[in-house]
Amino acid sequence: MNARKYFCLIIIVVVLISALTAIFLWQRRQDGGLPPGIASGNGRIEATEINLAARVPGRLAEVLVGEGDFVKEGQVLARIQTDILEAQLLEAQAKLRQAKNAIITAQAQVTARESEKLAAEAVVLQRESEEQAAQQRLVRTESLATKNAVSEQNLDDDRARAKSAEAAIKAAKAQVAAAGGAVAAASAQVQDAEAMVEAVQATVGRVQAELDDCTLKAPRAGRVQYLITQPGEVLGAGGKVLNLVDLGDVYLTFFLPETVAGRVALGSEVRLILDAAPQYVIPARVSYVASVAQFTPKTVETASERQKLMFRVKAQIDRGLLREHLERVKTGLPGVAWVKLEAQAEWPSHLVVKLPK
User: Fold this and answer.
1) pLDDT digit string, tens, across residues 99-113
2) 3-state secondary structure 75-116
3) Strand order in the sheet with 215-217
4) Percent of the chain residues past pLDDT 90, beyond the cut
5) Strand ranges in 169-308 using DSSP code E only, listed in sequence order
6) How many CB atoms lie within 10 A of CB 295?
7) Angle ∠(192,198,202) on CA atoms, nearest 5
8) Is 257 exposed, middle or buried (0-12, 13-18, 19+ CB in 10 A)?
9) Is 58 left (phi over 0), alpha (psi -120 to 50) or beta?
């Protein structure tokens, strides 16, 4: 009886060992045989998307690209009708010419007023000379009058001439002051005309900028993902025309549990395997680790349902590598990312980089 119990106990131990071994091997397969210092997470390939939009309202005249086309930076992708803006530009240019002519006219007025002022100043000098002569004549007449050498009438006449000369000087100086005011007014007109030129030039620049904005160019190289608006449709300010994907900025966003994310450093090595191309292993590096945990997204499968809070991580693919395989780059593809938690960790054989030729 004791032997039978002993035999049963041995069988139970063997079964437990076998079960534990099976669980270990199953987990080993699930982890892909990962050594310590490497973690994995599921995610999707994403890229920077740009909505090419119209800054000014108008009717879309033409779209020069189609969905899926590759475009270069600065390439013209679409145009908006410019009839109204071209008319506004012609009007502004005509006003600019008028404003410039107004400057010339105002400057001519300044010259004329300055000439009048010079003439008035010359009259003042003439009147001052006449007044000086009248004063000298009056002095002689008064001297002769004390000796009864001239009549009273002559003395009164010389006194009147002296006062008249003084009055003439005051009148001439008043004309000089008036001429100076006219010069100042003409100079102000020049400044007003110059300000008008600047204002009209600003209008011309604004209209020209709006005309330039009617030619929609690619802000960077990429691929047209889809068209939003068709030729003939009217766009408002900010109306979207097409969606552009920057294939030079491609990354896989994946999620790691909070127990692992804290060990991930920026720049850490990453290996990516996409579901659509499991035969390739793509190198990448960690470019972003979220600082705040979030709930596990529904579109991301996790190894354990108990991990409710996850950290978002970005694995950036090298731009040079993307340029070499530009035609193969596609966004939205699901895949798995393996990341080194320790720099000295070694990649297993199935995660050695393997790229299409």
Assistant:
1) 899 888 888 888 888
2) CEEEEECCHHHHHHHHHHHHHHHHHHHHHHHHHHHHHHHHHH
3) 215-217, 76-80, 58-63, 234-235
4) 29
5) 215-217, 222-227, 234-235, 240-257, 269-274, 277-289, 294-295
6) 8
7) 145
8) buried
9) left
Cα–Cα separations (whole angstroms), residue 279 to 134, 273, 322, 352, 354: 119, 8, 18, 11, 8
Q: What is the CA radius of gyration of the chain?
A: 47
CB 248 within 8 A of CB 331: no
Give the pLDDT confidence of 89-99 residue by residue, as tens digits. 999 999 999 98
Using an 8 Å Cβ cutoff, are 200 and 194 in contact? no
Instruction: Return d(Cα 246, Cα 308) in angstroms, integer.
Output: 32
**How many residues appear in the chain?**
357
What token pair was written down for 48? 């920077």
The pTM for the full model equals 0.62
Reading the block at residue 149, the tokens are: 């050498």
| Euclidean distance between CA atoms 235 and 80, whole angstroms | 9
Token output for 59: 């009717």
Q: Are strands 58-63 and 234-235 parallel, antiparallel or unpaired?
A: antiparallel
Beta bridge partners of 277: 274
Backbone angles phi, psi at 76, to 5 degrees: -75, 125
The closest alpha carbon to 185, from 254, 252, 100, 106, belongs to 106
Taking alpha carbons only, the member of 344, 66, 78, 89 closest to residue 223 is 66
- Average pLDDT in the chain: 82
Q: Do 288 and 314 meet the contact criterion of CB atoms below 8 Å apart?
A: yes
196 three-class SS: helix
Euclidean distance between CA atoms 331 and 319, whole angstroms:
15
pLDDT at 145 over 60: yes
Strand partners for 313:
254, 289
352 sits in which H/E element = none
Q: What 8-state DSSP symbol labels residue 206? A: H
